[in-house]
Amino acid sequence: MAAKKVKINRAPVLTLWAAVVAERLGYDEEEALTLGRAVAGLNAQSKGRRLGIYEEPDRAETEEAREKPAKAPQSVSLLGRAIPARKTEQGWRALTKGEPIDPDSVRRYLEKKFGEDLGDARAAMTELAGAYAPRELAGRAYDLYEQFRPEIPEGQKGWGAAGVLDLDQIRKLGRSA
Predict the structure, then answer these.
(1) Between the CA of residue 158 and those of 8, 11, 51, 152, what are the distances in Å?
(2) Residue 150 has what DSSP assignment?
C-alpha cells in the first residue's frame, strides 16, 4: 500500500478522531459524530480566543446564562473536554448553543472535508483507537491526536490552514501501542 497523505486542516481531523474515540468508548456512531463535532468546536473557540480572533463572552451574558432555569445539560467527557450533551429519543447528542447537533450534518461535513480519503482516514484512526483499552484511550486520546495532527504555522497564520495528515503515521502509532 502506498503512503497515504491527506492535505486538510485540523478541525475535521479532530472531529473525526474524537468521533472514533467516542465510538471506542461505547457511543454509537451518531452519538459519536455529535460529540466529535463538539470537541472540535470547543477547541476552535478556545484557540480563537487565545489568538484574538474571537472575543471573550460578555460577562453579563455568561452570568445570565448561569441564572437561567432552563434544562441544565449533562456533560460527556471526551479528549479532556466536558461536552454539553443531552439524552434524546435518538440517544446522546452533544449540544451547541443549547441545541442538539445533527449527526447527518457532521457526516456531510466530514465527507466534504475528507472527500474520497474519509474511509482510509477513519480506518487508520479506528485501528489506532483499537490498539488501546477504552479506559487507557480515554486518558491518552488528545495526546495521540497531538502526535498525528497536521502541522500548521503558529499563531493566526495557521488559523484554518491546511497541513498534511499522514495516515501511515497514525497506523504506526497504533502498532507501537
Answers:
(1) 12, 12, 10, 5
(2) P
Question: Domain of 59?
Answer: 5-175
Q: Are the C-beta atoms of residues 175 and 19 closer than 8 Å to each other?
A: no
Calpha distance 16→27 (Å, rounded): 14
For 118-166, how does the pLDDT look when each residue is reduced to its tens digit (9 = 90+)? 999 999 999 999 999 999 999 999 999 999 999 886 755 555 678 999 9
Domain count, the chain: 1
Q: Residue 54 CB: number of other CB atoms within 10 A?
A: 13
What are 40-49's contacts with CB under 8 Å, separation 24+?
40/11, 40/12, 40/14, 40/15, 41/96, 42/81, 42/83, 43/14, 43/81, 44/11, 47/159, 48/159
